[in-house]
Specification:
The chain contains 6 helices and 20 strands. The protein is of the alpha+beta class.
Amino acid sequence: MRTKALSKRRGAVLVLAAAMMVVIFAFLAFTLDVGYIALTRTQLQAAADAAALGAGLELIDGLGLLPERSASEVDSLARQAAEELAAMHSAGELSSVYLNPERDVLLGRYEWDEQTGEWTAFWGVAPYNLVRVTLHRDQVYPGQEDGQPVVGDEELRLFFAPALGHRTAAIRVRAAAALLPGVGFRVNPGSEQTVPVLPIALDEPSWNALLEGEGTDEYCYDCCCHCVCEGSDGVLEINIYPEAAPGNPRGNGNGTNQWTPGNRGTIDLGNPNNATPDLERQILYGLNEEDLSYFGGELSFDDGPIEVNGDPGISAAIKDELAAIIGEPRALPLFSEVTGQGNNTYYKLVRFVGIRIMAVKLTGNNKYVIVQPATLVDETVVPGAISVSDASLFTPVRLVE
């Protein structure tokens, strides 16, 4: 009797063990499929991030006060870049991620809303400083049930879940990247960052007149080689050399539109006792942390205009430094008011604009420093409440979603 009882118990244990093995293997299979889904989602997200950032780089030439490319041109280039960068990534069983450039890429504007206190997207509105990329593994096509590959955005086929009644899993990820419009500059404490602001001021009315069509077009900037040559590129230029006579973009310094005698040129951005070596350094390399310490570590107009001391006119001593940065984007301070004379001149700075130097001549007669509007993208730019249409300073492209 005892032997029969033991035999029955052993049989029951075997049945129970067999049943438990089925459950364990089912959970193991489920775990493998869940891990596969998570891995594929992570791979798709990496592809979406890269595609959004790459597409965002193509938006730069469509930004600024006088953009180098039209909205339709940057739209096409951004979609192409997103498709190419996504295809460089693998995800799941696919060696190349699929992206439909018309369906999966969305462009728009990204601006600070002072009422809501947050950044707001305006999709389909140019100029574009925002791009969103969506990657799909959630589409269903005829034949997918048979395991036949279709396009590359079909639902992800699973390994063991079909035994539980689930053949596929739907995955969708997205990423958005933007270049934020800027209103000032800041460097991180203790860093080696520099701010690309010229220590030269220009009056705001002259700048506004340039944007309204008063200027010359004698120099051409080639965005491919980043070089300047004589000729027309459709972007007007202005001479920022002091006291150029109206209508004469290459005045000799004896004109009539000066704001204050002996000045309308270099300004003290930093130590009020700066000298020519400081100006040379700032022109070539930008303002450093010590320079910005005189402004509380940040150059911005959140608290109103910034008052700075001026130096007598643009000197020939800095001609080589100005010539060395021809073609490079810089920020130019604009002033609305000026008081005093000579070394006792004070400017009320009201904003920064992006420019590039096109030509320099500071010796002999007919001195000039010719600049044209440009878009400045720099890591020290402080984003803020300014319309994308009015901005010429932008942060580097960054993920915002």
